[in-house]
UniProtKB/TrEMBL annotation, chains A, B, C, D:
EC number: 1.1.1.18
Residue stretches making up the Gfo/Idh/MocA-like oxidoreductase C-terminal domain: 141-326
Lineage summary: Bacteria, Bacillati, Actinomycetota, Actinomycetes, Pseudonocardiales
Domain of life: Bacteria
InterPro entries, A to Z: Gfo-Idh-MocA_inositol_DH, Gfo/Idh/MocA-like_OxRdtase_C, Gfo/Idh/MocA-like_OxRdtase_N, MI/DCI_dehydrogenase, NAD(P)-bd_dom_sf
Name of the protein: Inositol 2-dehydrogenase
Family of this protein: Belongs to the Gfo/Idh/MocA family.
Keywords, ordered alphabetically: NAD, Oxidoreductase
Domain spans labelled Gfo/Idh/MocA-like oxidoreductase N-terminal: 4-123
Main enzyme class: oxidoreductase
Subunit structure, as described in the record: Homotetramer.
Function, in words: Involved in the oxidation of myo-inositol (MI) to 2-keto-myo-inositol (2KMI or 2-inosose).
Length: 339, 339, 339, 339
């Protein structure tokens, strides 16, 4: 039994998903695609081995031949399309962010609650990365003791000039926020943003790097270096420090080369090679869950909460002080979601 | 379009393949299974979500609903089932070894030549391992210069007591032989086996470890440590040394743990976690090739030649001298096979 | 020509210095020792191959056979003995801290200024550690670009129960403060201390770990994790992040062991094996400088300034806010000292 | 009490020893130097802070102000000067090789036996390298079980064109031979040399690399890759494989740099930075031993035996077969020497 998938948004991310679903995921087919740019839609349809091309995304959602939907369109459209899926009663894997504000995310949460069942998964792919899964396994085994601190580094080679400095938190650091909540199984309650001297490569009003210090309800301290013009490579690192030991991500190199006075390992140029396995595993797990009417991964509640933490970071960045995270109580529909 | 697969042999390896084909490979279905042990066959059929159970392996091959066959039965049956597939004109992925002797492998080669097209792939999964692929990419890029030496290590925790000492080469070291031929694109022409003091854990007549020194037609020297009672873990390592530099496999750890005076990384207990990605990629590539009537990976010729190198090792082990590799000329059907 | 040294304080640290000076430093002899505990003094005298034992530390300073003095007595005595050396016009290598408060350190600075020449070196041995020296060399070469951030980790297995929680900064983190100033050649102007949930192993009023966020005059952000009950080992790490790249300390392991499912490297149990080479190099450099009437390493000004930064951390710890560092202007006597 | 040292031979190696003895070894002074080239002798005398310059090396040995002698002159002179020291009853640290043939080495052994006490140390500095010492400590602790194999790699950037191909074994690989004997506490009884395709950078008659396979009396197999035109760096590696685990040298990097798509660590350009600590420790230990009339490190017996193993390698290289090592029985004077 094949899960027939519709994909809304066929840019770099959407096209990658079409290819992965078509060529490397079991039990899935891409039945329909939509993109505001018809050429991109056509290219994706062809990569899917011949999918229907819709000219209206809401029609795609309602297409009787579509069992489940991937939303990979521009961020400001996520809310509308996720809502359309919820209303149509179809599972949706929505690229992060779920919506552009926590308030908008909350509307999706309310829509799900209204329908009484979870249909939304937010595309926080790190939850499917083998290294983060192993870090969680080690932590859960108890061998390093209770958590005290989590150190994270998130570096990009460069950044689209169109993005505002707030995107360092809302679009980039939000991955670190989500994975911290997932690893620790605790909610974040406050945020302080420190601002190093900005890199000389960025325009004057653009604060890069940023250094977040977050604290959970249980007191665990999380620090996140976000640096999106790091030039040398795409680099994600983390160390979880417990009372008795620590566990760190190992940089994912396949080989080591000795040449010209150096022994070296390649650093990925962007997030796609680094998280390729995670994306495939995420899509496979989502398709498997769709096939049996279940959900997995980050929920709408996770999308809402991580957005709320990011907003606390923005308030701290602007005030220069520690800002509390403001969230509504967790609805019972989501009592397991951070697990 | 789904490639319908029949699986002959549903022990550990066969069952793993059934699961991977069912749950993690795109465009594949397991339609039929056979095992001499009916319970194992039934378990595999169920893991496939309900495949037909054949009681005669040759019937499975002839089953009109079977497009392609995986052979994972005991080694001494490989030749018969691979031949049956060739005769039926169906693609077959045969676990290594292709047959128990190079002479038997040659019969499969001749059967393929008779049919005029390549249908056999031998399950040398290292050719699909991301680390070996990256080693080959670096070597092919020319950055380390021409090859001079290849160092390999192949260690197992322990070994089935039923196996003879010759299996260290024919069943274990043959992986290193095949991958050396593939990496270097050169044939091996001679073999010398050195014998360290045997581990105190093995029975008196069982030579473990063994240390192979092989030389290619172009003079590249290959050394392979085979140690199948290494106790501490399953460990495969390699370094390719060129005129200007070298490239080494990095042990595939996801995380590093600091605890109790040590920083450590896990070593896999057996080959399955180590080569899990390679097996999935091998099956996906084979299914993709089947779908378009092509072949990939190690050919029957590779199966034959690697077996011939292993036999030269056995002759050296017995004589204490360097033994030449004896192979027939490469048929034109296989002119690209080591690539 | 041998520099004759007097050692005040023959506890663990002082005795180590006696041994290193006697057995592994060229051009040095330990001529005299003092310790409030006569047995310890006698043991040190014997380790020196027969040094004079003084019963009054000030007499040791004045001993005509003593060319230079090492002060390794309890912290609260450092000021007095350093002052005695300055007054006697003799070079002194004073273990950190130079004095218990920045105000007291300033008195030593004033005494030196009064004498018109630098005689005091503070025992910040990291400045002589091969790894920090190499980090500085890479940074100074310009290959990673201008500095933006410095991440530091400073973990101890456990901590003397007699010490107050303020010692995490004044006795432990002060090493990280000094090395940051030395690496960056910039002064620190503000400090914020974040407090993770304390380890369950410490008494209720003892804040461990602490997480310092410091900023330099040029805007470089420095974060320092101090965790003195880390249990698993003594672990000092650092990464200096520049505009184009980063440079990190490599954990100093000599060998790697594979055993029982793990590949591991030892983590030092305490600071002595980790910084053994640094201590020897520090003593050799100091002796060499004494022989020609010069100074090297951290100056009294460095001792004063690092103490002032530590005090800003304590104010932040108590207020929960960012605290400015309060220092007097740098006297001309010290214009090169942070270099 | 200072040990007054005379240094014969003030080329690169001798001058390094003069500097180390003068600046970084406790209890030593360089009292006299000799070199056939007067300018080199003068430079060394000055580096020693004013040593006597002898114009006759034998006079230097007899100089009443010289307690002990370092021989760092050309290889063919070692025998003569070592003999002169033995005859004068003075301790001598002779750079390897002790003499140019095992027969010549044996004459030094006989001279020592004649005098009835050990005076000769051969400069196998690896025995003082912290990494090899730690490897030995781990092995001796029993945690990896009894030894089965030792893998070694010995690479140089390039090689003096004046040296013959036999020097790959007699001057370079002899370090690996000595350290294997020392680590394993076993004598080597046979040698087989395999010859990879030579590097295209060397002249036609020059076999580089060479691959030695040695076996000990207890059956341990030792393989040594010697490659003296490796171009990329000076690289010494080793792994000792036991029945239960293995222990490997860790490449000695102080920092790791991330830049331009790579994370890398420097590889030393030649043996001096790599073994700088070992040379200092060797000289300190030798001076300490001289001061109390003892010996340490590699003995004349070690110099003789390692030379005999190297000669077996040359016989194998020429015959293409395994060659037995031919040594005389170990005299009782040396019963502890390999320890």
């Amino acid at each position: 039994m094949t899960v027939q998938i519709g994909v809304i948004g066929c840019g770099m991310m959407g096209l990658d998903h079409v290819r992965t679903l078509t060529a490397a995921v079991s039990g899935a087919g891409v039945a329909a695609v939509f993109d505001a740019d018809e050429e991109r839609a056509a290219r994706a349809a062809s990569a899917a081995g011949g999918a229907r091309v819709h000219t209206d995304p809401v029609e795609l959602v309602r297409d009787a031949g579509v069992d489940a939907v991937v939303v990979a369109s521009p961020d400001q459209t996520h809310e509308e399309f996720a809502m359309a899926c919820v209303e149509a009663g179809k599972p949706v894997l929505c690229e992060k962010p779920l919506a552009t504000t926590s308030e908008a995310c909350w509307r999706v949460v309310e829509a799900e609650m209204c329908g009484g069942r979870r249909l939304v998964q937010v595309g926080y792919m790190r939850r499917f990365d083998p290294a983060y899964l192993e870090m969680k396994r080690v932590f859960d085994s108890g061998e390093i003791g209770d958590a005290l601190m989590l150190h994270s580094v998130h570096r990009n080679v460069d950044y689209p000039p169109s993005l505002p400095a707030s995107a360092l938190v809302t679009a980039t650091g939000v991955h670190d926020i989500d994975i911290a909540r997932w690893l620790l199984r605790e909610e974040i309650v406050s945020a302080t943003v420190h601002t190093p001297r900005p890199s000389g490569r960025v325009r004057p009003d653009f604060q890069d790097p940023q250094f977040l210090v977050l604290q959970t309800e249980g007191g665990v301290l999380i620090d996140v270096e976000i640096f999106v013009n790091a030039q040398y490579g795409y680099d994600v690192r983390g160390e979880l420090v417990g009372e008795r030991g620590s566990v760190s991500l190992v940089p994912p190199a396949a080989v080591s080369t000795r040449r010209a006075g150096m022994e070296g390992q390649a650093v990925a140029p962007d997030f796609r090679p680094r998280f390729q396995d995670a994306y495939r595993a995420e899509l496979q797990a989502w398709v498997d869950a769709c096939a049996v009417g279940e959900t997995c991964g980050a929920s709408a509640w996770d999308g809402y909460t991580s957005a709320a933490v990011a907003e606390a970071c923005l308030r701290s960045l602007s005030s220069g002080r520690t800002a509390p995270v403001e969230v509504k109580p967790r609805p019972t529909l989501y009592t397991e979601s951070a697990t």
